[in-house]
Amino acid sequence: MGFDEKGDGTGGAEVSEKKTVAEAEENVGDTGGMIRTVSEASIYATEDEEDDEGKKIELGPQYTLKEHIEKDKDDESLRRWKEQLLGSVDINSVGEILEPEVKILRLAIKSPGRPDILLTVPENGNPKGTWFTLKEGSRYSLVFSFQVSNNIVSGLKYTNTVWKTGVKVDSTKEMFGTFSPQPEPYTHEVPEDTTPSGIFARGSYSARTKFVDDDNKCYLEINYTFDIRRDWLST
């Protein structure tokens, strides 16, 4: 997660803009971001994230699974695609329910050379106390386990916003994809990243994670705190 930094200059001249990005990249070692080296794209990621929250993609009418199967049933290619997407779904048990349900079950934090940190996601989305601790300068990835029921969920994605001492320092978005209902949980691994290091990077962070679909329906919002320290906590 890259820290969100902006220059003070007005007018938007190219030289000033490049200077702002260069200065941010030089400073990333001291105040670095939780995952990415600062780039022009990450500098403006927070503004884009806020704009997206107010947008809703128009996807047309929603159908139950039975209606999905009946629709375009004479089109052989569409029929095969639907069968592949739905797999072994029991249409009789879920076919009449319009709204999909997504339940986020677990979060695993993987880091090379050490045991995974396994976390249960509270149903209310509010873990008590510090949820986890990461070592500064360490590589890690997040693996989410989730379950889909009732209907197909389209364009499920994860957004994460991080603050330190009340200042927004990062905004991240990761597309999970489209999933059909099934009894077995799905898993999705967010690409590996590296925690920042240095005296300004250490300390306590607060974060908000959301899981939303193409209709901008939020299935879970998690508000939590985490620490970055010199070393991992002893187990």
Give short descriptive properties of this protein.
single chain, 235 residues, alpha+beta, five-stranded antiparallel beta sheet, five-stranded mixed beta sheet, 6 helices, 10 strands, 22% helix, elongated, disordered N terminus
Provide a descriptive summary of the structure in words.
The protein has six helices and ten strands. It has helices at residues 14-31, 40-43, 45-53, 65-70, 76-86, 91-94, and strands spanning 101-110, 117-120, 130-135, 139-149, 153-164, 167-179, 186-189, 193-194, 203-212, 218-229. Strands 1, 2, 4, 7 and 8 form a five-stranded antiparallel β-sheet that branches. The radius of gyration is 21 Å and the shape is elongated. Belongs to the Rho GDI family.
The outline comes out as elongated
Order of helices and strands: HHHHHHEEEEEEEEEE
Beta strands, count? 10
Number of helices: 6
Radius of gyration from the alpha-carbon trace, in angstroms: 21 Å
Organism: Rhamnella rubrinervis
GO molecular function, one term: Rho GDP-dissociation inhibitor activity
Protein name: Rho GDP-dissociation inhibitor 1
Region (Disordered): 1-35
Give a brief outline of the structure.
The chain has 6 helices and 10 strands.
List the helices and strands and how they pair.
Elements: H1 14-31, H2 40-43, H3 45-53, H4 65-70, H5 76-86, H6 91-94, E1 101-110, E2 117-120, E3 130-135, E4 139-149, E5 153-164, E6 167-179, E7 186-189, E8 193-194, E9 203-212, E10 218-229
Parallel strand pairs: 3-10
Antiparallel strand pairs: 1-2, 1-4, 4-7, 4-8, 5-6, 5-9, 9-10
Organism: Rhamnella rubrinervis
Region (Disordered): 1-35
Family: Belongs to the Rho GDI family.
